[in-house]
Amino acid sequence: MNASQKAILHVFDEHVFGSMRTELDWALRGEAGNLAALGLVSYTEFLGGIATGDLGRKDASGRNFCAFLPYLGPDYAQLAQKGVDIYKQVRCGLAHEYFIKGNSTIWTQASGPCGIISSADGPTYFIASVYRDHLFAGARKLRDEMLEDPDGSAIERAKKALSAVGIPIL
Question: What is the pTM of this model?
Answer without folding.
Answer: 0.93
